[in-house]
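Working notes for the structural subgroup meeting. M.R. asked for a predicted model of this chain before we commit to crystallization trials. I am recording the input and output together here so anyone reviewing the notebook later can reproduce the run.

Input as submitted:
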Amino acid sequence: MKNSKVLKIFLIISGVILAFIGGSTLIIPAEMKATAAIDVSGNVNLLNDVRAFGVLVLSIGILTISGAFNKKLTFTSNVTSFILFLGLGIGRVISIVVDGTPVDSLQKATGLEFVLGIIGLILFIKYRETKK
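Returned structure, recorded in token form:
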């Protein structure tokens, strides 16, 4: 990827968001899910699944932040983060179509995921190095 301050700022911001959400979901899963009117307390199987997802998101957040400071990881971290954000957004839209409209906080999450995913994709297209 070409050197870009804008890309680095994007990777830091999106990485911090991912790391915060992932880390919080790992440490306080019931509280994090309660913000979306989801009750996971007392359900060991669901807590296990939610914490595992939290570690996945935390890991991608760490990778994304690392890409801002290590040029060898910039390509991978950009692609990984924009695919994650767009994938989450698309998954939520499918759920809205199939299951109905969720609470306001999940609708806002959908919008944020699409915004960050599209920005990441635009930056990827703009700053990728093409072989001639």
